[in-house]
Amino acid sequence: MRPSIVSLEVNGSHRDFLVQPGTTLLAALREALGLTATRKGCETGSCGACTVILDGEPVMSCLCLVEPLDGARVETLEGVATGPDELHPLQQAFIDGFATQCGFCTAGMIMAAKALLARNPSPCREDVIVAISGNVCRCTGYAAIIDAILEAAADLRAARPSRAA
Q1: Residues 110, 43 share a domain
Q2: Which of 24, 55, 79 is the last residue of a domain?
Q3: Is the pTM of this model over 0.90?
Q4: Which domain holds residue 23?
Q5: Which terminus of the chain, N or C, has fewer Cβ atoms within 10 Å?
Q6: Does 22 share its domain with 74?
Q7: What are phi and psi of 103, to 5 degrees?
């Protein structure tokens, strides 16, 4: 089997790279593109540490073969910050709310949360629990993570310009 060239939009930039058949999106991001914030955890879709946003939806990148994704849009934690010196409200809320311990799950949690807030800017606690249910954290007990996501949602809503005329 021959390698193929895959084109993706990754964090807003067009990227072409060579992959072997059977290469996962996780391997392509980490090895071919050097984007290592996406964690290599269980590689069976059980932990969620490898969660990225693919065409607007959170996916576990360890379960996605990259070849069929040619032309897709992918967002990783490296693309979340709102500027070179400004963290995304989710990142800031995780810091402010002590929502990280070892940090291994943090990238996946933030990506799952970012996808949630894109489709539901006013989630309730249960919405957040469902959104991060595929992401395992062995350190925090989830309360601080859920609170941080709800805080970021409030911050994002407050920052949006009013639609009132």
Answers
A1: no
A2: 79
A3: yes
A4: 4-79
A5: C
A6: yes
A7: 85, -5
